[in-house]
């Protein structure tokens, strides 16, 4: 797969480890930075990565922060992106299988690097189940466009 990855200053070592992990498994990795631990603002990194995913330049994206919370918020402000903050393999499986999430977010201050690898493995190995989950994604898309599901 073609995988874009970004990290803010809190997650540079975790990003380096995941880049190596992905490359060792034959994935094409697009490391969009940052590459040192000078303080940066994560929203611009999130936007850059999400645009790569939306354009089709990347099949999926990985965003790393300290907690990952703000990064998830930033990514999900971009129309068409479904970003999921996953701190265990259960969440990763649900995010992919039920939510067809396109951007994985993790927090380097929350999980250990080996846990991040296991989460990423589940992320890459889990396919979208469709069915009723597809109907829910269509409903989320209505909300994203400013519509309502309330039927008034
Ligand atoms: O939710 C936000 C992120 O996980 C950031 O890594 C974090 O907020 C950055 O904060 P600071 O600039 O204090 O390291």
UniProtKB/TrEMBL annotation:
<keyword id="KW-0413">Isomerase</keyword>
<dbReference type="GO" id="GO:0004751">
    <property type="term" value="F:ribose-5-phosphate isomerase activity"/>
</dbReference>
<dbReference type="InterPro" id="IPR003500">
    <property type="entry name" value="RpiB_LacA_LacB"/>
</dbReference>
<comment type="similarity">
    <text>Belongs to the LacAB/RpiB family.</text>
</comment>
<protein>
    <submittedName>
        <fullName>Ribose 5-phosphate isomerase B</fullName>
        <ecNumber>5.3.1.6</ecNumber>
    </submittedName>
</protein>
<dbReference type="InterPro" id="IPR036569">
    <property type="entry name" value="RpiB_LacA_LacB_sf"/>
</dbReference>
<dbReference type="Pfam" id="PF02502">
    <property type="entry name" value="LacAB_rpiB"/>
</dbReference>
């Amino acid at each position: 797969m073609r995988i874009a990855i970004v990290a803010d200053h809190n997650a540079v070592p975790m990003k380096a480890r995941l880049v190596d992990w992905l490359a060792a498994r034959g994935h094409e990795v697009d490391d969009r930075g940052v590459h040192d631990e000078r303080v940066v603002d994560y929203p611009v990194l999130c936007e850059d990565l999400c645009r790569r995913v939306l354009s089709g330049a990347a099949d999926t994206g990985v965003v790393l922060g300290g907690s990952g919370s703000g990064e998830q918020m930033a990514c999900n402000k971009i129309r068409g992106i479904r970003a999921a903050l996953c701190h265990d393999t259960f969440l990763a499986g649900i995010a992919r299988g039920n939510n067809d999430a396109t951007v994985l977010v993790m927090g380097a201050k929350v999980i250990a690097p080996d846990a991040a690898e296991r989460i990423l493995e589940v992320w890459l190995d889990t396919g979208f189940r469709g069915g009723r989950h597809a109907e829910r994604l269509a409903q989320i898309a209505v909300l994203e466009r400013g519509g309502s599901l309330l039927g008034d």
